[in-house]
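Reviewers asked in the last cycle whether our approach scales beyond single polypeptides. To address this, we selected a multi-component target totalling 956 residues and predicted its structure end to end. The input consisted of the following lines:
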Amino acid sequence: MAEIELREVTRRFSGTTAVNRASFTIHDGEFFILVGPSGCGKSTLLNMIVGLEQVTSGEIRVNGELVNDRDPRERNMAMVFQSYAIYPHMTVRENMAFPLKLAKLSREEIDRRVEEAAVILELTPLLDRKPHALSGGQRQRVAMGRAIVREPSAFLLDEPLSNLDAKLRGQMRTEIARLQRRLGTTTLYVTHDQTEAMTLGDRIAVLRGGDIQQIGTPRELYERPANLFVAGFIGSPAMNFLPARQAGSELLLPLGSITLPGENAATIPADRELVAGFRPEHLQVAAGQEECAGGLRFEAQVELLEWLGAELFVHFEVNLAGFAGIALPQELGIESGDGARMMAVARIDPACGVEEGETLALCIRPERIQLFDGRTGGNLRAEGA
Amino acid sequence: MSFRDSAEHRLAWLLCAPAVIAMLLVTAYPMLYSLWLSLFRYDLRFPDERQFVGLHNYITVLSAPTWWQSLFNTALITVGSVAVELVLGFIIALVMHRALVGRRTVRTAVLVPYGIITVVAAMSWRFAFDPTTGFVNGLLGLEGAWLADRWTAFAVIILTEIWKTTPFMALLLLGGLTLVPEDLLRAARVDGANAVQRFFRIVLPLMRPVIMVALLFRTLDAFRIFDTVFVLTRGAQGTEPVSVIGYNTLITRLNLGLGSAVSVLIFLCVLAIAALYIKGFGIDLSRREDD
Amino acid sequence: MAGTGSAGRMERLFWGVGSAIVVLYALIPVAWLLSLSLKPGADLGDRRFVPQAVSLEHYVAVFDDPQFPAALWNSAGIAGISTVAAVLLGMFAAYAIVRLQFPGRNLMLAAALSVAMFPPVSIIGPLFNLWRTLGLYDTWAGLILPYMTFTLPLAIWTLAAFFREIPWDLERAARVDGATPLQAFVHVIVPLAAPGVFTAAILVFMFAWNDFLFAISLTSTSDARTVPAAIAFFTGSSLFELPTGAIAAASVVVTVPVIIVVLLFQRRIVAGLTAGAVKG
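The resulting structure, written as structure tokens, was:
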């Protein structure tokens, strides 16, 4: 069992800073996620924790002990690599037994642990096969088997599902969650997929360009994102962003104006560039004004419909007349439009019979609008953010 | 730079050291010694008459028609064999690339010239072109002694060289061929390019780096030719290339002074060729890194 | 790629004929040597490609003469030891080049390149003189040293190319699993590198076995004379005529193992050559 603490951990090499002063604590038994776009430093952070990469400055402590200079083999952590890294010249059984042989465990103990892990991961019929005769999903399970036989103090997983096809990925996600619950081992999981992060994590750390953006439970990240990046990264489909302006007690949007609850109006300077964000799932169909009392009701011209059976996504254009275009973080991959128009998405009940080209009246409630500083990206409405 | 990084550096140098030492010891040191010897008049048959003569040996060599003739010979052999090898090698590479039937046999057959001892190959062709016992004259109904006349001797030398080294060229080019993505060729086909156009406009340009490296090494190899000529003519009939002159001066005539001057000049020529290729044609030899 | 029906058959025929021509091209000299070696002495001058009668007298003569078996022994020993040395040193260097970051890595590759481009004729003079002074003239060691040097670039390139193919994540996984760097090397890397090392050894051996210039410059007797030198200077009963039959027989004896090795390992050899030259 292990509590892993990072204090101002930094990794720099040849002029670039891969990880910048990361500080957080992973509690014993917690399933902790590191998530972010490629190049954000999450894998580097993982490698530093397991000891495969040097720490430029800062401290890594496991159960209070400083481990910065310890070799990986002395940290009692098991790692599952993105490429699985299972030894091609050994059978499944030999792969799983390898770390135990190195630890000089008795023959009986090795066999017992391997059999047990094989049962948990449903690998028993495959024990005598070699990796080249296994499917991707089976190889992934062998990599996990090799990790759990060690009964380590922590599991480190580096994007273990990214090489699997979508369906298998969903299945394995549930398997991993169940496994972790069962074993109770501290787990650190790296991924670029926010769905995996949200479904698996007890707590999530969002990284961007080497900096930690926010650490919190999935709910906290969803409901109170610390900045524009986190807001746009978490949640699928992504949050809608529009330029906004504060005028007195009213918030002006290209869609119309809305009154925000009073306590914030005073704290926002009038001439600041703002970005308003609201999630597709928080837009509601409002046939009449009375269905949108206190909120902002607007007409949307339906450009594109995506019907998925259980959901209906409506894509519409927003005319930005009178508002300056906004620059969104590149890694989010959201189109910021051509400066005159932006696309937005609404998620509504598929029972609604709207067609492409028709107009739809939608409503957004003030408590569902997130407000961000146009320059810094910071969340202006979150308490203590 | 942290402790671990510098430990890595030390380990790396430790691992490379034996190889580097071995390589430099047997090339750099003797080369410098060669340079030194070239400044003396030093004949091993009269070791006591050794004396310092400065650059006199170089003047002797550079004013000797034999030297320039040998340079010409070497150039002729080099250009002749490399040009044909390139074309023939490409043809064989294309055959190996496309051949579905008997791929294994073709590969084996192609490696035999590569694996055969050069001396053996040269002997074989020498016997083949022998005026009285060889099958070439028998087949063509000729009586001439190929190796007795300068130009026919060159023909045999170049033929032997081509025979021996084309397979290696073919293998290098084959490796380069596999680097051309099939998708590009298919797209070109859809766009209306025929086989010839596809070859000259897509395959060749994409293979340029591989071709240049292959040419560099084949040119250097051809320039350094020794075994084939020695076995076929011993350098007689005016076919002596530079390395045979070097050998004859140093080992046969035991003239270390003059021979060393020849050695240094040959070294400079090789340097010049390499520089020409690397700087002139812009070969990127550092592409060998991909991490 | 190949079409169906008659167009496909035409293409297959074309490439089939092409392959046959290539095979013929490669084997003519070998076949000719075989033919000469089997012709009885009297028929050697008949200019025919295929012998009319077959005789093994030349093979007998070649093995009776002590020159040839001595040369075989010298070649095998010298090339063998040079190969072991070059592959060993090459392995260390290749590992460092592929796996480690260090300044001077480019220098290392430049050194290997320079040696590969070096003209051996330029150093036979000094080596000849040096070896005579050091007592290395006409000895195995006298040839092993230059052979090792000149085969190192080939060894390093081929081994580096193969080492690059090994997924190095495996080494990291082994370290995380609890292995010391040595254990990781022995249990994980060595089994995966073995085929590459084997191929490199084959290529290096062929290279060393083939050398002629050093062999004739730095040796003079059957103490260290190798096969290429022996064949080139084969003296028969007559001082003026080359013992064609004997030379042909010796050549065949020396070529047959090459053909066998090439037959058995052609895939590996081609992989080694192209990997070393193209990707290396």
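The radius of gyration of chain B is 24 Å. We regard this as preliminary and will revisit it once experimental data from Aim 1 are available.
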